[in-house]
Design a protein that fits this description.
By secondary structure, this protein is α/β, with parallel strands linked by helices. The chain contains eleven helices and 14 strands. Helix content is about 30%, strand content about 20%. Helix 3 packs across helix 11.
């Protein structure tokens, strides 16, 4: 395909935020960083003025995936508006790579790396899991301002592994491991077996699980999962489910106008606390837990009064260990793009040559503006 193929798009982008003048048609010093989820696609054009400068965000946009027929259309729209022709794309995406295809049932369309490379005339397309990118950003200090849900009980809490858990359209988790250089482990923890406690949780589980079948944590710890909990509770209470979207369940629970929605969100928080504690024990996460997800951040006050923290601590003899660990809530938005860009720069441009403070960001984001998703 001709190099100009990027400049043919079927629909405009939703939003543009520029941190300075965009370098048009600069193939040598610019690259694209993207975070592709089940609901939103976030793209940034990364440029640098000279060989000694950190790359910076020249432009950033957010798209609703459902508004576009495929990922190529989003990238073309992005480049068309900016009149830019970068030749590399680093893409953080929900799911895992198998035979050149991203495997994830929550994506709006298939994502094929070779297909993207050919259709968009790119020299390289790099892939990493979206939670892997988010953990990379968090581990390198991008989330220093995250809201504290449970304060650390040890001075050395920053020194160990960090867990990032991301309930959204699906459920992801990743682990940041300190070192020189640091490493990030992508996991598929969202597909591990859900554990339900005797009582209401087992009653809920019985309403959407087949006998003797696998039920993953993602079945409840996601936006669709919250709605499944709500629908099951309506059946248990013999009430017609009047709320048809996860956002409606959350809003009704937070506003106190629907007791079943409140119960659903309470159960969700309990399950989330148990899941986070399981990961913390598995990886020895003395650096703490970060909860990331667009629908979590608006309900900070609800999380604080919910069973989340008590369920996090309720692990028998491991309670003293878990008491030491902080839990923070991250309004992650642009952090996936930041992590993808930083990972690419460290691994493929500077080739892991970072020296000094390993938690210092390698990308210059200080002058960029990242509006909230809509």
């Amino acid at each position: 395909m001709a190099a100009g193929a990027l400049l043919s798009a079927s629909s405009p982008c939703e939003r543009v935020v520029s941190a300075g003048p965009v370098l048009a048609n600069n193939c040598d010093d610019s690259f694209l960083a993207a975070d592709i989820g089940g609901t939103h696609a976030r793209l940034a054009l990364m440029t640098r003025g000279s060989a000694r400068q950190q790359p910076r965000v020249s432009a950033y946009r957010v798209y609703r995936c459902a508004d576009h027929p495929h990922l190529e259309d989003i990238v073309r729209s992005f480049c068309q508006e900016l009149d830019a022709q970068p030749r590399e794309l680093v893409m953080a995406c929900a799911g895992y790579m198998h035979a050149g295809s991203v495997i994830n049932k929550n994506l709006a369309w298939p994502v094929l790396l070779q297909h993207l490379k050919e259709r968009l005339a790119l020299h390289h397309v790099w892939f990493l899991n979206d939670l892997q990118a988010l953990a990379y950003a968090v581990g390198h200090g991008a989330a220093a301002s995250a809201t504290v849900l449970k304060a650390p009980m040890a001075r050395e809490a920053h020194a160990g592994p960090v867990i990032v858990v991301g309930p959204g359209t699906g459920l992801g988790a990743a682990v940041w491991l300190p070192g020189q250089p640091s490493r990030v482990i992508a996991t598929e923890a969202g597909h591990t077996q859900l554990a339900a406690r005797v009582g209401r949780e087992q009653q809920v589980l019985a309403h959407f699980a087949q006998p003797d079948s696998h039920v993953s944590h993602e079945m409840v710890l996601s936006g669709p999962g919250l709605h499944r909990i709500y629908t099951a509770l309506c059946a248990i209470h013999d009430r017609y489910p009047s709320l048809h979207e996860p956002s409606a369940v959350t809003a009704a629970a937070l506003e106190g106008r629907d007791p079943i929605a409140h119960e659903a969100l309470t159960l969700f928080c309990g399950w989330l606390g148990s899941f986070a504690a399981d990961l913390a024990m598995l990886y020895g996460a003395t650096g703490g837990i970060y909860l990331a997800g667009g629908f979590l951040f608006p309900m900070i006050d609800f999380l604080r009064t919910s069973p989340l923290i008590e369920r996090f601590l309720d692990k028998g003899v491991m309670r003293p260990f878990l008491h030491k660990l902080p839990i923070r809530v991250l309004d992650h938005g642009h952090y996936g793009v930041m992590g993808a860009a930083g990972w690419h720069w460290d691994m493929h441009v500077d080739n892991g040559a970072r020296t000094g403070d390993e938690r210092k960001a390698c990308i210059a984001f200080s002058d960029a503006v990242f509006p909230p998703d809509r």
